[in-house]
Amino acid sequence: MKKNNQSKYEHNLLVIDDEVEITKSLFRQFRRKYNVFIANSAEEALPILEDNDIQVVLSDQRMPGMSGITFFSSIKDKYPDALKMILTGYSDIDAVIEAINEGQVFRYLTKPWNPMELNLAIEEAFERHELISNNKVLLGKLKEANSSLERKVVERTQELEKANGDLTKLNLEKNKYLGIVAHDLRNPIGNALSFAKLLISDYTDFTQTQHLKYLKVINERCYYALNLIESFLDVSKIESGILDLNLDQYEYYEFVRSCIAQNELFANKKSQEIVFNCECPKTYISFDKNKMEQVMSNLISNAIKYSNSAKKIWVKIQIENGHMKTQVKDEGQGIPENELPNVFKAYRTTSSKPTDDEKSTGLGLAIVKKIVEAHNGSISVKSTLNIGSEFVFTLPLS
Fold it and tell me: Residue 271 is part of a domain; what is its CATH number?
């Protein structure tokens, strides 16, 4: 780091002349305005330049050993910011002008010089140096700002490209799923329509028992199609940020027991047992009953669908850390570990399939997650292949 041996003033002036009386005269002229450094040759000037931050150099042209212009030429690359001025006789004017044109000299003054003119020239040189220095600082800040902006543009572009890629992927998944759902809708509606046409065209040819059987098929097919459409409507509302909750106080044990009862018929058909375990006293909490019935029914029906016959399903509720904790655990086929992050995402399906050809919309868990989170709760899943899955959600007590 350069030092300043004479730090009385802000600006540093280096005067070079082989005549001692001239350097003394110039020192006296400028010592009350600048830190003045004296050298009687180019060789003496070099260490001064190395040790001090010299802004302006005033040199005689004709000196023994090395002329002023030659000296300036030798230091122009190492000290490009120092303003260089020449004191010269008329015989050297052409050489000085050539040096000015080449950018090696800022200004020249002829000998003998006018002290006032020299004073103004030195002031102008320091002002020019300050202007150049400030411009460099501003240019550096501008380059830094541009570099920062470029980095941010690159980062933002990468973020947008990733987001666009994710949206494209999601859209492809969505379109793929829409195709599946369209097919799933076509099947039950087509089946119901076929049986309805059959009953209408050959009504008298069937017994009452057959009428009832066909009507049950029509009813079941229509119910499934309606459930699929309602799931899509729910997802559309949730994705649009529309999820109105009708909150009220309900006794949670009775609510869960009622949800289990609604699903026991489906479990009985597969000889499955739903085991309910309550580890909390009679507790009232606030929630939207219809929405939470969707949550409970979805989790219990999934446990039934993805478990084989004669298996057990456990439902457990308990109070933990100011929340009502609900667990639904099955002995089903489980979910592959790499597919668990997609379980609660809409339009994503796992490789696990229902064990008795039950129908599934594939949208239920996405809706479940949104409903639970709308109640300021959370939901998670643990699963092991061929052992079973466990879904846990919490609702705040207050």
Answer: 3.30.565.10
* Residue 340 placed within a domain: yes
Backbone angles phi, psi at 69, to 5 degrees: -65, -40
pLDDT of 97 higher than 60: yes
227 within some domain:
yes
Of 201, 218, 239, which one is at a domain's C-terminal end? 239
The domain of 273 spans 247-396
| Predicted confidence (pLDDT) per residue in 99-124, tens digit | 777 667 888 888 888 889 999 999 99
CATH of the domain at 167: 1.10.287.130
Is 174 inside a domain boundary? yes
Final residue before a domain boundary, out of 221, 239, 257: 239
What CATH number does residue 35 fall under?
3.40.50.2300
Are 4 and 47 in contact by the 8 Å Cβ rule? The answer is no
Write down the pLDDT at residue 1. Answer: 42
Please give the tally of structural domains in the chain. 3
* Position 135 in a domain: no
- Let me know whether 266 and 354 are in one domain: yes
Contacts 24+ apart (CB under 8 A), 314-318: 314/274, 314/275, 314/277, 315/256, 315/260, 315/274, 315/275, 315/276, 315/277, 316/276, 316/277, 316/278, 316/279, 317/252, 317/253, 317/256, 317/277, 317/278, 317/279, 317/280, 318/278, 318/279, 318/280
User: Does the reported pTM lie above 0.85?
Assistant: no
